[in-house]
Design goal:
The structure is a single chain. Helices cover 49% and strands 12% of the residues. The chain contains eight helices and eight strands; from the N terminus they run H-H-H-E-H-E-E-H-E-E-H-E-H-H-E-E. It has helices at residues 3-9, 14-39, 55-76, 83-86, 103-114, 139-152, 162-167, 181-193, and strands spanning 80-82, 93-94, 99-100, 122-125, 131-134, 159-161, 197-200, 207-210. Strand 4 and strand 5 (131-134) form a beta hairpin. Helix 6 (139-152) packs across helix 8 (181-193).
Length: 211
């Protein structure tokens, strides 16, 4: 066996072992620092509150705000936003940075979310631009959730009232519990079109039968 092969096979000297340990520690520190940067909250990034003139950059800001709004509304179980009131929440006002998204910029974000590029994740309510639906699930996606619940809990061919479905004890653990009645009815309408539900009765006491 040549000396070069003997050197490769020989154990590391104490000095070499110490150097190797130092290199591993440096790599771990570098990896840890990268993770901290990656998990840093986006809303703590000051430029996020000032929209940029470059179209590509602004488009990226719209996407970030769309994700933040959907995540916030899902966490808070919110389906509708009144824009002027929402600006005072921690979603749009960062007290530590003393930064707030302006109403004009928020309207731009919602307009983006309401369009095809934004995945139609929002919809204006009325024509004055003061409030909107936030679709962290769109009506057709809520229809799927309700249909799965019907299957899982054996509710087919049973008649349930809207109140039972939205506010009853049987749906306490479901994401659609407490949903705005208008949005819930829109989701049920999707099931009606699919032939999976029938709605009957007056507005005050509507019932639903699932198929």
């Amino acid at each position: 066996m040549s000396s070069s092969y003997r050197n490769l096979a020989s154990p590391l000297s104490p000095v070499q072992q110490q150097q190797q340990q130092q290199q591993q520690q440096q790599q771990q520190t570098s990896t840890s620092s990268s993770a901290i940067v990656f998990t840093h909250k986006l809303e703590d990034y000051p430029p996020l509150y000032s929209f940029q003139p470059t179209l590509l950059t602004r488009h990226g800001q719209f996407k970030i705000w769309s994700r933040l709004i959907q995540s916030y509304c899902r966490h808070q179980h919110i389906f509708k936003l009144v824009l002027a009131m929402a600006l005072d929440t921690s979603l749009f006002y960062n007290a530590a940075l003393r930064k707030r998204l302006s109403l004009a910029h928020l309207k731009e974000v919602i307009q983006f979310m309401a369009g095809e590029e934004g995945g139609r994740r929002a919809e204006w309510i009325g024509g004055d631009g003061s409030s909107c639906w936030v679709f962290w699930r769109r009506p057709e996606e809520w229809a799927d959730v309700v249909a799965n619940w019907v299957d899982d809990t054996a509710q087919k061919n049973k008649v349930l009232t809207l109140y039972e479905l939205i506010n009853g004890e049987m749906t306490l653990s479901e994401e659609f519990h407490g949903m705005d009645a208008e949005l819930f009815q829109r989701s049920l309408s999707v099931l009606v079109k699919r032939g999976k539900a029938q709605i009957f009765g007056s507005e005050d006491q509507q019932g639903v039968k699932f198929f």
